[in-house]
Amino acid sequence: MADTARDPPPDRTDFHEVEDGEDLFPEPSAETPESQPASLSAVDISTNANGPKQDSFFDDDNEDLFAEATEEVSLDSPERDVLLSDGPSPAITPITPPTSVITPRIGHTHDDMFTHSSFDEIEEEESGDSFDIHISVSDPEKIGDGMNAYMAYKVTTKTSMSLFKQRDFAVKRRFSDFLGLHSKLASKYLHIGYIVPPAPEKSIVGMTKVKVGKEDQSSNEFVEKRRSALERYLMRTVKHPILLKDPDVLQFLESTELPRAVNTQALSSAGILRMVNKAADAVNKMTIKMNESDAWFEEKQQHFENLDLQLKKLHASVESLVCHRKELSVNTAQFAKSAAMLGNSEDHTALSRALSQLAEVEEKIDQLHQDQANADLYLFSELLGDYVRLIGAVKGVFDHRMKTWQKWQDSQMLLQKKREAEAKLQFTNKPDKLQQAKDEIKEEIEELEGKVQQGERDFEQISKTIRKEVSRFEKERVKDFKMIIVKYLESLVQTQQQLIKYWEAFLPEAKAIS
Amino acid sequence: MMQEGLDDGPDFLSEEDRGPRAVNVDLEMDATLQVDISDALSERDKVKFTVHTKSTLPNFKQNEFSVVRQHEEFIWLHDSFVENEDYAGYIIPPAPPRPDFDASREKLQKLGEGEGSMTKEEFTKMKQELEAEYLAIFKKTVAMHEVFLCRVAAHPILRKDLNFHVFLEYNQDLSVRGKNKKEKLEDFFKNVVKSADGVLVAGVKDVDDFFEHEKTFLLEYHNRVKDASAKCDRMIRSHKNASDDMNRIASSLYTLGTQDSTDLCKFFLKVSELFEKTRKIEARVAADEDLKLADLLKYYLRESQAAKDLLYRRSRGLVDYENANKALDKARAKNRDVLQAETNQQLCCHKFEKISESAKQELIDFKTRRVAAFRKNLVELAELELKHAKGNLQLLQSCVGVLKGNT
């Protein structure tokens, strides 16, 4: 499957399975702008080197494509091997040592800018089955003791997709494994415009309680919240057609042993580097002033800003509701006890009995409130929290687009300067150095021209990807919200039905007082 | 600002029936003397109640008349009953609590200050809510003052009290000033002495089984009602908080609905509407629980205290009687002041017996009233809870139906 393909053919649909671990290049149509995934500076040179060669791949002959691909691959295979290769080809799947998470792997990432139709095509070509995979995270188990203890979760996958080796399998994973997975995916896909679902957040307080072994309501809730969040995270990740096929994801789901992702620890060198990068990004964002020529992007950015604001507000209100409902449950339980006491001391028998019944009703109602508060939390509140984080990822992707534009502009400016320098050279009168300088400049100009072209391609590529991703994201959002909110409302319906039952049972008791 | 909407007394009272709103008390409707509060006005820091009387009794100049009274005048009337030795053997109907709008007023003020920081819709909504709250407190205080008067009017002895008639009829200000500091201090010490005394007196075992039982019962009951009342209040407050949250959720959903460009906008608007409506129902549930349960418990907290006071007075009387007996014996032994001692002893005996007799009836009546009131309120509470739950259910089910149909 064409995971490693360099260029996204907008309407190309024939793909071939790679036989011997070569990269598969889809057949791009001639007019598609060649776009390498946006490259970070470290890999610039290599991609540039590959850049021009890409052109020759744009032809309809699959065989030729592969032939050239072979050459291509061998040039960079050392680097490739380091990165997790893509594709269903099992051969190229070295386990990525954690350190490589930091190295830019842009050059040969497997996500391709497939067109939407290609997504479906690929899946059909690939396995002939529709999206059918269900992941569940269960059985949180505390392993170890003291501060080194951790929770291990069972990740069970049930699927009929031929992407996987089995139909029903399970592995044990810990929280840092999930973070590691996200980290890898983010470094591979975010900067080219794919919305990678964010992983659940770390919580020092929550985990410490668990480590220490405090078995109480709040730590149980913490574990359950986390378990549920991990499940949602995995489901969202595999729902993304590109991410589903990423070997890191497949490895995560399938292989029994997984190397410890130590770089996810907050205080590791990787963690600190992440923080520094984040700060740098924030500063950069403020200084980049992009001339938005595309109204679609401007509108969408505004839309996501508004959505972010409103969802945060709604989330805060729902969290407050959860809190108050829990309070209500506690207070109702206390009142129930008090009413029971009152019933005990009441010396009129029928009234005494009625008061005891009232106490029982209130006790049942308090349980009802507790259950409802849980529904409030796990359905509504968590959904909102997830989307607040997801929108963060969306905004990040827009930011990457800005960065890509900036790079392109920078290259252009540099080219301009070099051209001016070249023009100046024409008028100097140092003939002996002139030719050498002229040649140098000519080379640099050629290089820069390539860069500029590449930059433009990258920018257009990421813009295209983002458009598709946003449309997919919005579809998912609509589906998610509708489904979960309806489920939540159904929980409210159930609560009311129970309330009716309880009060109906009580009424005759009250009437029986004489 | 607040006064404008609330000074139109007739309007706000018109929705409820004009009969005595004896929520917590089961009273027989006696045609010879009917009292109710037909109107009320809320001014800066006082409430003016219009007390309306309908009577066929000859003592009154007219058959139907009204006067305006303030809270302090109710307290004056109550205290005059308490201080009247003739009424020692009766449960004095508990005085209505002072109208307390401070909390509500503070909230309205805060709202006014924060007007700039919220949207016009939010501001109007919150203002409406606070005004509704203010109104609810207002109605409650009117009801409690009315219950007091009705209880007095229904009591065979107290209804004949002269002060009561003056209270009802005298259409000028009674010039009852609130207690000044010195008097308040005196009251405080009186209470301290009373409670200490009460403890001592409570220790005295009563020969009479009935009263002994009542004493034990009332002591325990009073404490438990106090506890239940406090816990009930807390529960209702949580309920109100949750319903406030729903209000904010409805607003947020509404904004989301208006901003969204996808299918979700209609969806959000519908859910926002649902939350608005369901919140109103939840708020009503909390209000009804407050009225039927919390107020009931509060009232019986006060009444059980009044009953305890009666028992105390009787015990006091018993102790006085026993002391008088001892004094008489001593006097007879010394053969000095025998006549005085005898008169005293007879007085105490008479007082004690009078109190005991009426107290027994009073306590039996108290039980009957209590049972009836609880029955009425618990039935009404259950019926209201059912009504609201069914309404809520229908709302939710229809909304879910619409949402599912559209998806």
Any chance you could write out the topology, listing elements then pairs?
The complex is a heterodimer of chains A (514) and B (407).
Chain A: H1 44-55, H2 62-82, H3 116-127, E1 133-143, E2 150-159, E3 168-174, H4 175-189, H5 204-212, H6 217-239, H7 241-244, H8 247-254, H9 269-287, H10 295-345, H11 349-426, H12 431-511
Helix pairs in contact in A: 5-6, 10-11, 11-12
Chain B: H1 2-6, H2 9-14, E1 33-43, E2 46-55, E3 64-70, H3 71-83, H4 102-113, H5 120-154, H6 162-169, H7 181-203, H8 209-259, H9 264-334, H10 338-406
Antiparallel strand pairs in B: 1-2, 2-3
Structure at a glance:
The complex is a heterodimer of chains A (514) and B (407). With 514 residues, chain A is mostly helical.
How would you describe this protein?
The complex is a heterodimer of chains A (514) and B (407). With 514 residues, chain A is mainly α. Among the domains of chain A are: 131-263, PX Domain, CATH 3.30.1520; 295-513, Substrate Binding Domain Of Dnak, Chain:A, Domain 2. Chain A contains 12 helices and 3 strands, in the order αααβββααααααααα. Chain A has a 3-stranded antiparallel beta sheet. The model of chain A is unreliable at 1-128 (pLDDT under 50). Chain B is built from 10 helices and 3 strands, in the order H-H-E-E-E-H-H-H-H-H-H-H-H. Residues 1-22 of chain B have low confidence and may be disordered. In chain B, strands 1-2-3 form a 3-stranded antiparallel beta sheet. The radius of gyration of chain B is 27 Å and the shape is elongated. Chain B has 407 residues and is mainly alpha-helical. Chain B starts with a helix and ends with a helix. The interface between A and B is large, with 57 and 58 residues.
As a percent range, the share of helical residues of chain A equals 55-70%
Main sheet specs of chain A: 3 strands, antiparallel
Radius of gyration of chain A: 29 Å
Task: Give the helices and strands of chain B as they follow along the chain.
Answer: HHEEEHHHHHHHH
The CATH architecture term of the domain at 295-513 in chain A is Up-down Bundle
Number of domains of chain B: 2
| Helix-strand topology string of chain A | HHHEEEHHHHHHHHH
Structural class of chain B: mainly alpha
Topology-level CATH name of the largest domain in chain B: Substrate Binding Domain Of Dnak, Chain:A, Domain 2
Strand portion of chain A: 5-15%
Low-confidence stretches of chain B: 1-22
Shape call of chain B = elongated
The biggest beta sheet of chain B reads: 3 strands, antiparallel
Taking pLDDT < 50 over at least 5 consecutive residues as the criterion, the unreliable ranges of chain A are 1-128
CATH class of the domain at 295-513 in chain A: Mainly Alpha
Cα gyration radius of chain B (Å): 27 Å
